Amino acid sequence: MKGLFSSLFLCLGLVYAQQDSLKKLTELAAAGNGVIHLDSQSFDLLTSPKRTWSASIQFTALSKNRNCVPCKEFDPAFSTVGKAWSSVQASDRDQHFFATLDFDNAPNVFQKLSLASAPVVFAYPAADGPRKPASGRTAPTKYDFQDGFDAGPLAQHLSKFTPVPIPYKAPIDWAKWFTTAIAIIGVGSFLRLAAPVVFTRWTWAFGSVIVMLIMTGGYMFTRIRGVPYVGRDGNWIAAGFSNQYGQEVHVVAFVYGLLAFSFVMLTLIVPYQTSPAKQRMQVYLWGAVVIIIYSVLVSLFRVKNRGYPYKLLL
Amino acid sequence: MQSCLRNGTQLGRRRAVLATTAIPSSSRSITINPLGWVREKLAPGMAEKQSSKEVESAKQLARQEGTGSVFESLPQAVVQKTKEAKVAKEKPTSHKYSTANFKISHRKLNMLANQITGKPIDYAILQMQFSEKRASSRIMNMLATAKDHAIRYKKLDPSRLASFENTAIVRTVELGGSVVHVTTTYAVRALENNAKVYTVALSKHDRELTSHVEVRLKGQDKALQFKESADRDYSLFDVTLPKTLSANKTLNIVFENIQTHATKPWPEIAEQGGDQALKYTTDLFVLSPYSTLVQRTKVRSLSPRIISYTEPKGVEVFTGDAAATKSGANVVYGPYKDVPVTTSDFIGQYQQPVTVHYHHDQPVLEVRKLRRAVEVSHWGANINTQDDITLHNAGPKLKGHFSRLEHQMQAYMKQSAPHVLPALTLGLPPGIRDVYYYDTIGNVSTSKLRVAPLPPKGAQRSQFSILELRPRYPLLGGWNYSFTLGWDAPLESAVSYDKKTGIYTLAVPIMTPIPGAVVNEEELQIILPEGATDVNFVTPFPGLSAVQDTHVTFLDTVGRPSITLQYKDLTIKHAQDIYVTYKVSTLAHIKKALAVATALFLLFALGGIARRVDLSISPKKKVQ
Amino acid sequence: MPSLAYPVPTDLSPATVKNTASLFRIVTLALISGAAIASRLFSIINYESVIHEFDPWFNYRATRVLAAKGFYEFWNWFDPTAWYPLGRVVGGTVYPGLMATSGVIYYILQALNLPVDIRNICVLLAPGFSALTAWATYMFTKEMKNESAGLLAAAFIGIVPGYISRSVAGSYDNEAIAIFLLMFTFFLWIRALKQGSALYGTIAAVFYFYMVAAWGGYVFITNMIPVHALVLILMGRFSHRLYVAYCSWYAIGTLASMQVPFVGFQPVSTSEHMGALGVFGLLQIVAFIELVRSHVSSQNFQRLLRVFLVATGLLGASAFVFLTYNGKIAPWTGRFYSLWDTGYAKKYIPIIASVSEHQPTAWPSFFMDLQMLIFVFPAGVIMCFRELRDEHLFVIIYSVMASYFAGVMVRLMLTLTPVVCVASAIALSTLLETYINPVEPDAAVEVVEPKQTNGETTAAAAPSTPAGKKAKKPAAAAAAAPTSALSELVAVSSGKKTASSRGIFGLDTRIVVVLNTLWMLFFFVFHCTYVTSTAYSSPSVVLASQGPDGSQHIIDDFREAYYWLRQNTPEDAVVMSWWDYGYQIAGMADRPTLVDNNTWNNTHIATVGKAMSSSEENAYPILRKHDVDYVLVIFGGLIGYSGDDINKFLWMVRIAQGVWPDEIQESNYFTPRGEYRVDDNASKTMRESLMYKMSYYRFADLFGGNQAVDRVRNQQAPKNIELDYLDEAFTSENWIVRIYEVRKEDILGRDLKSANAFEKGKKRKRSKPITSRRRALAA
């Protein structure tokens, strides 16, 4: 009998505890403008095993002396998402909290979670109450920065844990619009002025050839893979057959262009040279250019493809 | 007691005699013979015309009582002691002579009868000649008359009336995987002049297992002719002896039969590393229509590890000491002395299956289906042979699963399990080229070939080209692997041409033996060159079916004559040649070339015409 | 008599020259075809006549059905064994062109009593069609310049690795015939455009239909031709020839293409095809305007035109937007969309992103595939700009677009290759003609080159040329174009005086340039042979390894395992594997598969990914639900075959995560330090995953006591892995393919884990000591 009573009280006590901790958290969130700034015990409070709410926590190290660059890059995104969340009506808002934990405020938490790197975002699903996930998995899930540090993907990802989707909207990037508008106008006026130049075939020829050279130089590869301009170790040729650095695009495109140009010269320009001596000189010149540049190109290729058996002059 | 025992034996003896007795009851008692006696009393002559129907019914009766002879179809002159009528059948195989008007007490008669029952007629006459009994002379005369009548009225062959006795039968069973060699040697003594035909009997079960039969005289390798006749549950082989035997001459006849699927794995599953044990079951006694003085069965396995064998029961009558003895790899049943002519109740009483359970160290292989296509091309001077083989490991099924790790370990320690087949070695004909070995999903690169050179004309085909082929995966118990194997051979290696008659003779081997494997069914197709005529072929042994039709391939206009034969249960003994003769006219030779040339010419002609026709509506619009 | 750099025979009648030339052409074309076919047979010579890689196995299987059962059976063939238990309506989900082609060839040969195995037809189809491609390219380039350029182009396309890579003997894929169709359709289009003939337009449409039936890449044509037409209109080169050619092509081609079930109504309902439709409409408008212009006075016309254009423009655009908005017109499909927004695929369609041939192209592979052509071809494009005829515009647009696409996706290198060959052929033949031409210019006379001015005037006068004049010009040009060098030569040799100021002085210059070019061409040939024989001729079904003595040793594990499945498992045993091997299993093992290379159902693939990447307990229900009998994994750890499943594992995880984000997280498969490891400090999730266990099960035992090393990852392989829900059923000779049988539920109703533990408890007593095993495998 007594035991039953005691247990009853215990339950009530627990419920009350939940209640006021929830209230506390709500205040904290309001204070932090949507994002709770945690220290170790408030962290324990937020992630208590009997929590009826869910939370998404950013572990970061923003202080100068840590100089964690990605942390600084990512922090604004997180806080904007948190801010966006604080705009939903209270009933939903108070079931999910955004919090950030700085290393210097609670290093022990980092140790407890054995976090070696920052920033990290954990999403804690509710461990109790109605919003406890059906699968019963209450362990936090980690957000992998696959799509970079942008706020959009983050909001999209975290919306899976919030009662209602996070009403995050990407802020309209006025600067971009402005520049594009300017560019359009500029181009338009330029065309008006330079129409005779623009509409000659050779302008177009030049343009298209440039495009072709850039593309065949592997520009799209660098774009899609986002490879650096030069390697960390400073050399500008990436090892490996199907890999390259940004600078290679320029070099290769230039080499191609030079070779193509010499062919064009030999074919189109040289025959119009009326003095035999000059013409002969040019023929030999361009012939030499072709041979030398070509062998440079081949040797460049042999750097990329070790097994390649052929070599020219060098 | 003693006498009773004697009677028992006599019983056994006599029963054998009552080949076609019409009166079963008489067989039941030696002493009293009511029915016969009554008939004798009632109507002396009426039995003259006893309907053959009656006889048949009597036979039925006799058979039910196990007293009928097991060899109905075997014609023999038999001595009658019971008084009974002569029966006239359309196609007489036996002759009955009765002692109807023959006054003598059956007690006296029995004395003599017991002496001669079951013995061939001449032997009986001989006995009577030198008998002390008074009745003997009369019986002798009667017998002589009976023989005389039999020969004269019924045209029974005197030599067939003659008969044999097996002085010894030695059966040797060489246990194998799916193939078991059984060699039975009959030491035969003729009991009668000009004995010509000796009969060997096989039980139905043995006959079904048997896939190949060969009869020889001991020490000679010339096969004897025989004619087989099957009964409900027996098969008889009437072997024609090379020369007639006169009485008391002896002869050793070797009867070889090869049994397939005679063994079964026991236990039926084995682990990857485990042993492989097989069971072989056969009958204890060798059946024979003749009485046998001594017979012995020797079962020999390849490995000395024989796990168990059956001890025969209730054969003390025939053997003094142990009914079966085991020494090393051999289990010997017998010797059994004085084994009488086989009768159904002898079988009922003594015949029994004996089983030998033994280890076998080679995988038990079985070719479930073999399709062989042999295509002769005179243009390419080439004979192409292609076998589609479905191989099956009929040993104990793999227990659990295959572990590559274990397999590699076994391979490394040189102790691979007996039922695992890692590779095969085949002997292909010499002088072959372009050997190919592939399966449904492409070429199999794991094979080695050593080609033997083609022997000079006329020389015996001495050595083989050795092909070692590995299946894609090791073949474990119960696994299958189907593949295709083919090769080209020069035309002259198998085809000979006769200038005068213009006849080609082609020799096609029925199969390429896979060591230790039995071929369950084979379809052999022989494709002759296009336009071949007068096709004849000779097979070493008959197939299930033989069909002639035409096969159309490679730019044929009329198609090529082809012969398709079906076989089953082939063993290495069957790897013999089929001979095909045919003619090919010169016109037939160049027919194909002509056809192709014509077609091409027409094509070019059409092209030329098409080029010169101008289809455009307004010529001036045409560019250049 | 002009001065000649070297003597030429003078007593040749033009007829003789013409005939010899045409004879040479035929012989050369024959030789080129020979070379094209021969250079694709390396794979057969080095290996065997076998179907390559993955997709070809499906095509081969489909073709076998077609050959065996006839076309109608094939047409409504429902394959229950694929995508078990869903099944797949094959007839409606394939481009049947390829199968139909080889089926027809097969039937013809049968009719001729030539019993050629369907497999050999399939294997040799690609080389055969490459010869046709060479011919088509010849015709195309002939339209561009002249025969000699055409021959050069044919030779290039015949042996250039960029095309061989997809058309070696055995790679029986749609591209095998598609490139021929592509080039031939383009040739017909150009013909139709030049002559303004509806006949050629129709033939072009027919081949376009064939192309649609053969390859998904037909969309390239569907957009290429309209763009060409559009540019012509914008340059004011509208003509009735264009109108006739385009309308006949578009109307018939579109109607025909809708007959292919797999395409259906896309040509009128998806954005990829809208361009063609729009240009079709535009052409009608422009034609109408032309009509009006010829009736109305000019200043009214200007006003009318402006109003009209604005109105129609607004109308069309708004209609398009509206239709797209309410879904009448499907937006770009993922594959095409990922061509423009290159980040799209990785984010939203990981399956597409995971395919290796959808990766972007680095410059070395450009050079590998095209070698010298890659830098000669801009020169060729410039020459096209020089005399800017309508067809040259086509080449220019083609080269710009194709080089962009080739940069985005490796496989689209294939579409770039033909135009590269054409353009560089134009450049090189121009060069050679210039330097072989024996006529020396008479020094220091300033005469403007006639062709040049001609080109200029057309370009300048283009906007206001009446159609009549243009009708003449190309005809004239075409008449002039063929054998220009030859005709010149003939003219010279027959002593006529051709006044030309452009030309080369002296013999040495000629020799230098010609030799230089020849030398480059030879180098090109060597390069092509080398690349073809080494890089592009291995059927990934069979692997070859070099022995220490340089002898080639064949590694045939795939077929070993597949054939074992085929021969020793029940007909209806369901095999689960990663989708790469689906087609091969269906083709070689002939068993039902869960997923295969036709990746139409993302969820199903994700299910497999989930089963592979989750722990045994979680995977087992999935396996049982899909009544999987066998699970097949590829493991290269023993012989260092790097393309194995552990290396593909992250994609499985990623794809599974896309569907079950809260059960599978990619991050759990990395070590805390973010590395992807398989040895003992691999993450727990990794070590428990089914794929991991199946790959390394009993692998360490093979090394006995020694260090078990995974030769692909160069890491230490894990020891004593226990499998409770699966049994190892088969492992191929080099451990590349490992097949596991899924256990049925325990008879006693225990869960398999405890049942297994019980078994083990019994076994452990009997199992042989480890020491012997060590001795066994010391080697």
TrEMBL record, chain A:
**Transmembrane regions:** 174-195, 202-221, 251-271, 283-303
Query: What membrane topology was assigned to this protein in its record?
Result: Multi-pass membrane protein
For whether the record's keyword set contains Transmembrane helix, the answer is: yes
Task: List cellular component terms (GO).
Answer: oligosaccharyltransferase complex
Q: Which InterPro entries match?
A: OligosaccharylTrfase_OST3/OST6, Thioredoxin-like_sf
Q: What biological processes does GO assign it?
A: protein N-linked glycosylation via asparagine
Predominant location of this chain? endoplasmic reticulum
What is the protein's given name? Dolichyl-diphosphooligosaccharide-protein glycotransferase
Q: Which organism is it from?
A: Candolleomyces aberdarensis
From TrEMBL, chain B:
Output one GO MF annotation. Answer: structural constituent of ribosome
- Could you state one GO biological process linked to this protein? translation
Name any GO cellular component annotation: ribosome
Output the Pfam families linked to this UniProt entry. Answer: Ribophorin_I, Ribosomal_L22
Q: Which residues cross the membrane?
A: 593-613
Topology class, membrane: Single-pass type I membrane protein
Respond yes or no to whether keyword Nucleotidyltransferase is given for this record. Answer: no
Q: Does the keyword Lipid metabolism apply?
A: no
Gene3D superfamilies per the UniProt record, alphabetical: Ribosomal protein L22/L17
Its chief place of residence is endoplasmic reticulum
- Annotated pathway, please? Protein modification; protein glycosylation
Name the domain of life this protein comes from: Eukaryota
Record key words, sorted: Endoplasmic reticulum, Membrane, Ribonucleoprotein, Ribosomal protein, Signal, Transmembrane, Transmembrane helix
Localization, UniProt: Endoplasmic reticulum membrane
Tell me which family the UniProt entry assigns to this protein. Answer: Belongs to the OST1 family. Belongs to the universal ribosomal protein uL22 family.
Q: What does this protein do?
A: Subunit of the oligosaccharyl transferase (OST) complex that catalyzes the initial transfer of a defined glycan (Glc(3)Man(9)GlcNAc(2) in eukaryotes) from the lipid carrier dolichol-pyrophosphate to an asparagine residue within an Asn-X-Ser/Thr consensus motif in nascent polypeptide chains, the first step in protein N-glycosylation. N-glycosylation occurs cotranslationally and the complex associates with the Sec61 complex at the channel-forming translocon complex that mediates protein translocation across the endoplasmic reticulum (ER). All subunits are required for a maximal enzyme activity.
Record note on quaternary structure: Component of the oligosaccharyltransferase (OST) complex.
Q: What is this protein called?
A: Dolichyl-diphosphooligosaccharide--protein glycosyltransferase subunit 1
Automatic annotation (TrEMBL), chain C:
Q: What is the protein's given name?
A: Dolichyl-diphosphooligosaccharide--protein glycosyltransferase subunit STT3
Q: Which cofactor does it need?
A: Mn(2+); Mg(2+)
Topology with regard to the membrane? Multi-pass membrane protein
Residue span(s) of domain Oligosaccharyl transferase STT3 N-terminal = 24-423
Q: Where are the transmembrane segments?
A: 23-45, 89-109, 121-141, 147-164, 176-192, 198-221, 242-262, 274-292, 304-325, 366-385, 392-410, 511-532
Q: Where in the cell is it found?
A: Endoplasmic reticulum membrane
Q: Where is the AglB-like core domain?
A: 564-633
Q: What is its EC number?
A: 2.4.99.18
**Which segments show compositional bias classed as Basic residues?**
761-779
Question: What phylogenetic lineage does the species belong to?
Answer: Eukaryota, Fungi, Dikarya, Basidiomycota, Agaricomycotina
Tell me the keywords, alphabetical order. Endoplasmic reticulum, Glycoprotein, Glycosyltransferase, Magnesium, Manganese, Membrane, Metal-binding, Transferase, Transmembrane, Transmembrane helix
Q: Which domain of life is it from?
A: Eukaryota
Map out region (Disordered) in residue numbers: 758-779
Q: Which family does it belong to?
A: Belongs to the STT3 family.
> Which one of the record's GO molecular function terms can you name?
metal ion binding
Tell me the route in metabolism or biology where this protein functions.
Protein modification; protein glycosylation
- One biological process GO term for this chain? protein N-linked glycosylation via asparagine
GO cellular component terms, alphabetically, are: oligosaccharyltransferase complex
Say what the protein does: Catalytic subunit of the oligosaccharyl transferase (OST) complex that catalyzes the initial transfer of a defined glycan (Glc(3)Man(9)GlcNAc(2) in eukaryotes) from the lipid carrier dolichol-pyrophosphate to an asparagine residue within an Asn-X-Ser/Thr consensus motif in nascent polypeptide chains, the first step in protein N-glycosylation. N-glycosylation occurs cotranslationally and the complex associates with the Sec61 complex at the channel-forming translocon complex that mediates protein translocation across the endoplasmic reticulum (ER).
Gene3D superfamilies in the record: 3.40.50.12610
Q: Catalytic activity, per the record?
A: a di-trans,poly-cis-dolichyl diphosphooligosaccharide + L-asparaginyl-[protein] = N(4)-(oligosaccharide-(1->4)-N-acetyl-beta-D-glucosaminyl-(1->4)-N-acetyl-beta-D-glucosaminyl)-L-asparaginyl-[protein] + a di-trans,poly-cis-dolichyl diphosphate + H(+)
